[in-house]
Amino acid sequence: MVLANPTGTWTAADGAALYGLERWGDPYFCVSERGHVMVQPRGDRGGSLDLVELVQELQGRDLSLPLLIRFDDILEDRLERLHGAFERAIAQYGYGGRYQGVFPVKCNQQRHVVEQLVESGRRWHFGLEAGSKAELLIALSLLEDPEALLICNGYKDQRYIETAILARRLGRQPVVVIEQADEVGRIIAASGELGAAPLLGIRAKLSARSTGRWGSSVGERAKFGLSVPDLLASVEALRAADLLGELRLLHFHIGSQINDIAVLKDALQEAGQIYAELTRLGAPMGYLDVGGGLGIDYDGSRTASAASTNYSLQNYANDVVATVKECCEPHGIAVPTLVSESGRALASHFSVLVFDVLGAGTLPGAVPPAQEGEALILRNLRDTHAAIEAPDGGADALQEAWNDALKFKQDALAAFRLGYLSLPERGLAEQLTWACCQAIAARLGALPAGSAIPQELQALPAALASTYYANLSVFRSAPDTWAIDQLFPVMPIQRLQERPDGLGSFADLTCDSDGKIARFIDSGQVKPLLELHNLRPGEPYLIGLFLGGAYQEVMGNLHNLFGSTNAVHLRLKASGGYQIDHVVRGDTNAEVLEAMEHDPQLLLERLRMASEAAIGRGQLGISDARRLMAHLEASLRQTTYLQPWA
Ligand SMILES: *Cc1c(COP(=O)(O)O)cnc(C)c1O
């Protein structure tokens, strides 16, 4: 496995550029001269941590890999940036209202994450958005600020609605968003029953169509939201029930990860007009909730491609503020408080998944020693290899050698099928063919820069790519890479000052051929292989998966019974260094078994009896039986991932 042009100097900056670190990682991730990824949890406000040293220190605390490191400072910085962007936009456009966001809990329901957001967001009265009864329970109990909004989305039954109405008496501010036409009747009934009304919102089904993966979240056939006729009918039903006075908020959501800002502008204009219309119909209104969708530039290309966005956070805020102002002012309508439900934009950056590589399947490059009286095909392959290594040939000679090697390999296969070549001889032929390929790739790499390389040979480094066996389950830790082909930046977190040796992709621990990471960011495009270093015996090769803080942890599953990974929450200390606020141990084998209704103690007991029986039959020695039981017991207490033998 050889990359082109292995000459010239290579520095850590080259490594950072290769993986696009400065494009998607700024301001939180960069590289040190030593070639380690550095984390700046407070963005450009100072303070940094060496990610490799951090992982080593955490491992020293018995936190084995794979490890999820959550930088709570980053979460706070993202909150500040979001609010800062809206504050600047409001000032720039002279907007007569304010911004007041909420966090959609579904994006990451982990207790410490939600608690941290609530605490950090208090100074802006930052609220929460719930989409189910369980999420409502989280939001009601954590959100004590009476000014913070609690947006209630999702399907709602009578109990959900009554809970929200009664919670208003606790001093909370739940806004029940009418998402389905038939919810209006339930809301009216619940209000009558309780003699109290909820704050109401209404979700509009916009006709503006989003592009990208979540494009079908809007439009006339969208799952949620009210069509214009339903919207008007709901307003009249509320009026008749004397509840129109509680209608305060218009909501829309045009899908996650909006790639193209033009789509947002269309939606904003449409929603702005509906808002103005609702005011005219007599609803007091006051809030316009633009939903989620604020995207992340996963590949740093700043394009409208699936893994990117063609706008910045500031562009987004500017467009929301300016468009809403344009819709309201001509009608003489007071501008609303702007609400967004930005989940991905807040939660993606703060968690970094670090995993180790257990080994690599690399094609052999060594030439096996010649033996007396070898078959002609084998001698031909040896001659071809010698010709490649000869100093004179240029690209043409390499192309010829490539053609020869392929031909001899096919000959060897045919001879084997017909019984003229033994299995060991066929093995030698394959080894020699790979040695020829490796030698050609090495020679190609050494050609002067700009040399014309025949097309067939250009694909050679990819054909020689290695599979790196990763100590993780993509189904658990990065499910969207599998489910929806999402791209996350993945890269080694050390040795960046060393030129990578070749190309590879990752295979995970599961026995599922889909359990792999084989699509990588490539500034607006996708590449199937990543530049990686050869493994060194006894030295860990640590890989980081970045920007996965939104949705990945919560959507991960127990495929093959790989459970949650170890996780830590940490913060920079004012005095330098860091403090660990929480350690969340990954699932043990006992826990994942219990999740499937097995009783780990019962399983052990059956095995204990089986080993007693084997001892009785003389098939198992007592010391081996004890060792077997000790391994089983230890496994139950440990995480589900592979651990260095200890
Ligand atoms: C999922 C969802 C969000 C969050 O979207 P992001 O793109 O992660 O910001 C917000 N609002 C609603 C209604 C959602 O369903």
Radius of gyration (CA) equals: 30 Å
Shape assignment: globular
Percent range of helical residues: 40-55%
Q: Please mark out the parts with pLDDT under 50 across 5 or more consecutive residues, or reply none.
A: none
What is the β-strand count? 23
At CATH level 2, the architecture of the largest domain is: Alpha-Beta Barrel
Please outline the major beta sheet. Answer: 10 strands, mixed
Summarize this, please?
The chain has 646 residues and is an alpha/beta fold.
List the helices and strands and how they pair.
Layout: H1 12-18, H2 21-24, E1 29-31, E2 37-39, E3 49-50, H3 51-60, E4 67-71, H4 72-92, E5 102-104, H5 111-121, E6 127-130, H6 133-142, E7 150-152, H7 158-167, E8 174-178, H8 183-194, E9 199-203, H9 228-240, E10 247-251, H10 261-280, E11 287-289, H11 313-328, E12 337-339, H12 344-347, E13 351-361, H13 376-389, H14 395-417, H15 423-446, H16 455-458, H17 460-463, E14 466-470, H18 474-477, H19 479-483, E15 490-492, E16 502-507, E17 516-517, E18 520-522, E19 525-527, E20 530-532, E21 542-545, H20 552-555, E22 566-572, E23 578-584, H21 589-595, H22 600-616, H23 622-637
Parallel strand pairs: 4-22, 5-6, 6-7, 7-8, 8-9, 9-10, 10-11, 11-12, 14-16
Antiparallel strand pairs: 1-2, 2-3, 4-13, 13-14, 13-21, 15-21, 16-17, 16-20, 18-19, 22-23
The structure holds pyridoxal-5'-phosphate (PLP).
